[in-house]
Design brief:
With 370 residues, the protein is mostly helical. It contains 19 helices and no strands. Helix 6 (102-119) runs antiparallel to helix 7.
């Protein structure tokens, strides 16, 4: 009775399965799958050691299923158990290839790429993602091909190569196809990079604006509005900034939970700083600091503290201009990364789905008739 309702069916089934006096292959597969469900439940709640325990049990019961080895490697990477993670991902790739399970084999390669990226070996990470891309394309796994290109785009941006990042982004959009669920996450990430790293505020604004018709979950929507406010400030669009400032505060006051609020308020503070609205920047940053501390959001707390510290005493020093309120420098530099053309690509990609899915998000059939 004390078990979480989301976990109760899996544990009840597992309890019955392990009591089977004469388990057959179907019983073994079902027991392993119940362990996987319990592991994923634990992972969602940050209980990674519990997740690893259930995944080990699943892999012990059904070692011929590479999904369990892959997830073991993935969760171990989150815990920085790098040697264990690499061993399980390589084993998952070997088993998956042996059984012709190319989706898992590709995921394992991608996992190895993410592992080496996390460890700081970027050249090796890029090689694994490139191999994953080639395997996905060869086997017609369009979503996984898009994911590999997504990872390659992120690494190119990390290296400061905006042109290559844009090329990989366009290729990822083509691989996903219009209307694919990953398109919206890719759009959000690219718009953020354009704004935060390259100062391409107008292009970021246009992508954020188009996302407003597709992002509705409260924590993500409030951050989207706040990001649009910051991008609009960088672009010099005062009316848009004011509108998004008001919309963001209205959404924050209307929501009972505070998830995403601290990060959103930081974006408002940075946008206000671009327009020299120091009093408003301080109000937003101070509230962000309160929320971040309440929710124990460590990284967000550090950022909020840096903004509040820069604004104390009513005088903003030059160092703060160059570090905390860096959008002001980007706005005057008028940098160009070649993102303008990408905005129309994202607009087209946020339409009805045209890949191998049976229907689009609008429930419009896309397979040809007859």
């Amino acid at each position: 009775e004390d078990v979480d309702p989301a976990l109760r069916p899996s544990l009840a089934a597992l309890d019955r399965l392990v009591r089977d006096p004469d388990p057959d292959e179907a019983t073994i597969e079902a027991a392993a799958f119940a362990c996987l469900n319990a592991a994923l439940w634990a992972e969602e709640r940050g209980a990674y050691r519990t997740a690893l325990g259930f995944l080990h049990a699943a892999e012990d019961v059904d070692p011929d299923n590479p999904h369990y080895a892959y997830n073991l490697g993935r969760v171990a990477r989150k815990m920085a158990f790098y040697e264990e993670s690499e061993a399980w991902l390589k084993w998952a790739h070997f088993v998956a290839r042996s059984y012709g399970m190319w989706d898992v084999a590709t995921l394992a390669l991608s996992g190895l790429g993410n592992l080496h990226r996390q460890r700081g070996n970027l050249p090796r990470a890029r090689r694994f993602h490139e191999v994953a891309r080639r395997m996905a394309k060869l086997k017609g796994l369009r979503t996984l091909e898009g994911d590999a290109l997504y990872d390659l785009a992120g690494m190119a941006f990390d290296f400061g190569d905006a042109k290559l990042g844009m090329e990989f982004t366009r290729s990822a959009l083509q691989a996903y196809g219009p209307g694919h669920g990953r398109v919206y996450r890719l759009a959000k990430d690219v718009a953020w990079i354009l704004m935060d790293r390259f100062g391409e505020f107008e292009s970021a604004c246009q992508i954020f604006w188009k996302l407003m018709d597709h992002v509705w979950e409260p924590p993500y929507r409030v951050l989207l509005f706040a990001s649009l406010a910051r991008a609009a400030a960088g672009a010099g669009w005062k009316e848009v900034f004011e509108g998004m400032w008001n919309e963001t505060w209205s959404m924050i006051r209307a929501q009972t939970t505070r998830e995403g609020h601290a990060a959103s308020l930081i974006q408002l503070a940075l946008g206000a700083g671009t327009f020299n609205l120091w009093d408003r920047a301080e109000i937003a940053a101070a509230e962000a600091l309160v929320v971040a501390r309440e929710r124990k959001e460590g990284q967000t707390t550090i950022i909020a503290e840096s903004i509040v510290s820069a604004l104390q005493g009513g005088v903003v020093a030059d160092y703060a201009m160059n570090t905390v309120f860096k959008d002001r420098i980007h706005a005057t530099a008028n940098e160009q990364s070649g993102a303008v053309e990408l905005v129309s690509d994202f607009a087209a990609a946020m339409g009805a789905r045209q890949d191998d899915a049976p229907e689009s998000p609008t429930r419009a059939l896309v397979h040809p008739v007859g």
